[in-house]
Amino acid sequence: VSKCCHKLKSSSSSLGNPASASCPLQMSPSRVVVKFGDALSAKCTSLSNQTEGMGWESPYGGRDNTKGVTFLDFKIDSVPVWELGPMCYVNLHDGDQCTEILPVTIYKMPDSVSLRQNSTTVKEGEKFAIQCDIVNVAPARNLSVLWHKGNKILNSETFIESSPSPVSKSSVLTLTAHRDDDGAEIWCEAKLNLWPGEQGPAMMPFNLILIKHQKIFLAGNETLEMTVGENMTLNCNAKGNPPPLYHWEFPKFTKEWHDKEEVIEPILTLPFELPGVYTCTAYSNQGNVIKYFNIRSRTTFGVMVGVGVAVGVLLLIVGAYFVTPNGTFSFNKGGYQPGTPSRPV
Which of 46, 96, 225, 313 is the most exposed place for a label (fewest CB within 10 A)? Predict the structure, then answer.
């Protein structure tokens, strides 16, 4: 290319504004982000009235020195390389030359983004790892991976990578299994950050449903007071993963109770017949938990107390009508005279 490049003056107008009156060169756009294989175009403009000619230096899309112009386009129909730095130059009448390199970022979307987990089931309280694999992405230095659980971001990761060509990267998230996370959706998002303050065109979420083995959780023991024949409900409903099974034991092994021993329902409703301890065992491959139901009969003592209270209330009512002012008792309260016999002696 003729008259490139001697007595160079580098323009610092990277944002597309003239750097100085001595080297008024402007790029539009100021930088280019282009997908590998796509077309690329830019325009270089000289704002100097001393412009003799302009040109583009590049192994692809270069243009010879063109005289008598104040702007010159740069075009590539299909970007064939991973690294490109086309340079615009302006030759001035006094023999000086201004140059500027157009920043070009060439990107490629990943071939795939996938999740790997050593086991699809983990035990509550144990640590486990999930790996997010991003295959053939460029440039990896602009790649970030975000880990999500529902609407919450758990972690983010970026990468130090000098190669502009496609590479594969992995991100590993380590968590501790918690029962509240059972069935939670954990996923990774791989994206290319290609413009300052903006995300690039790559947003590729992939989902994973975590299934956790949970220890059995069962509410504490219960004590109930029942009357013979009254229906009672025994609730042994437990939480766990896998769901627990149930075994019942009763205080009297008549045929009816024996049949009840075989039931696997967590909640039983049956008529009360005998006091005693009813035992429920919830069990799974994560262990077992026992819950005791101490069933008491409403005893004779309770009845006696009730009768006593009733008698006391009755006596109070009777006393209000038949006790005299001096504390003696009379069925003829209106005709009674204190100190006088009620009939002749």
Answer: 313
